[in-house]
Amino acid sequence: MAEFILGSPLKPLARRLPRLRRALWRLDEGFIRLLLALMRRLPVDRASRLGSRLGGLVGPLLRNKSRLLKENLAIAFPERSGQELDALVRDCWRQSGRILAEYPHLERLTTDTTRFELDTRLCNPAALQPCVVLSAHLSNWEVIGIGLSQLGVPHMALYTPPSNPHINRLLRDSRAVMGCQLLPRDNSTRRLLRAMKDGNSVAMAVDRRVDEGTDITFFGHPKTSTLMPARLALKQGYAFIPTRVQRLEDARFRITFYPPITPADADADERERAIDLMQQLHRQFESWIREQPTQWLCSKRLWPRGTASAGDTNAAGHAVQSAGATRYNKAS
Q1: Closest CA to 4 of 61, 88, 72
Q2: Pairing mode of beta strands 155-159, 201-205
Q3: pLDDT of 1
Q4: Number of H helices, E strands in the chain
Q5: Which of 145, 157, 239, 246 could crosslink 128 through cysteines, CB 3.0-4.6 Å?
Q6: CA distance readout (Å), 303 to 135, 206, 224, 298, 306
Q7: Is residue 95 classed exposed, middle or buried when 0-12, 13-18 and 19+ CB atoms within 10 A define those classes?
Q8: So what's the pLDDT on residue 290?
Q9: Angstrom distance (rounded) from CA 243 to CA 271
Q10: What's a single GO CC term here (predicted)?
């Protein structure tokens, strides 16, 4: 989620002025509370459709985020024209609007088994628990927790808190109804290990970059990624399960659990095996995203500035910074 929504034009100033930043956070909290209250009053499918329309209208007004989305998509799909990329950006915003509109309905979704197709033909995590369940930010990835609960798999979910602490509390409260423990992604390894030793599986979305990590090739370019989930699976002997969420129609989903990934070279050292697991996982992500790019929410900077060549950006109808720049912009 963007650091500022209504106050997006004041973002540079707000980062220098703590009082302004706190005021804008409160303003955005009020906006999100109002939006969630409205969506809660609607049937879930109607709320999802309204969220899609609002996302498609409001999202493009967040110009910095829209530009970042387009840069990511231009790198992933260099063959797409500028108009095609603009359409994908709008679809990303529609997907984001749906996800937000579905938050106040997570409790209803948890008890409505008719809204989920749980495809366990390739892998049933209930037979492999505890396990590590990995996803990309596709469709409404939050509902993986609901799917695991419906399969009777005790689990915890790692998440990245939004910058706005007030919105973080709102979303955390909404997620709490899914029947799983929630852990912020940073500084939670010990709690995670303890919970897994108690028999809990863990679910996390890992297609985004981290500030400090290991290069994993994603759409032909290196992206810094965490090795934590792979190392955790290797060290504890847990299955490493790719999991895909597809939106079928409105708030109806298919959750597919894929066969566990194993290292190509079982005799390699732990780091090399962990890199191999994450690389195989990202190749799986690529195939899903290419199949349904409109369901991918890539709203964070994934690659270093300058990753796309001039030829790539011509197709996108915009330019990015020169290839010599390798530092991430932590503001993204």
Answers
A1: 61
A2: parallel
A3: 64
A4: 12, 9
A5: 239
A6: 19, 14, 8, 11, 8
A7: buried
A8: 97
A9: 23
A10: plasma membrane
Domain ranges of the chain: 8-316
Distance, C-alpha 154 to centroid of its chain: 21
pLDDT in tens, 309-327: 434 444 444 333 333 333 3
Checking 43-47 for CB contacts under 8 A at 24+ apart, the result is 44/102, 44/105, 44/108, 44/109, 44/250, 44/251, 45/250, 45/251, 47/101, 47/102, 47/104, 47/105, 47/251
DSSP 8-state secondary structure symbol assigned to residue 255 = E
Asked if residue 241 lies in contact with residue 227, where contact means CB atoms within 8 angstroms, the answer is no
Q: What is the pLDDT of residues 132-177, one digit of tens each?
A: 999 999 999 999 999 999 999 999 998 888 888 998 888 888 787 7
- And the tokens for 182? 């929630």
Question: Strand, coil or helix: what is 300?
Answer: coil
Please check the confidence at residue 296 and state whether its pLDDT lies above 60. Answer: yes
Q: Six-digit token pair at 11?
A: 């973002």
Distances (CA, A) of 178 to 83, 150, 174, 264: 38, 10, 8, 35
**Pairing state between β 239-249 and 131-135:** parallel
Residue 21: what residue type? R
Paired residues of 183 in beta bridges: 158
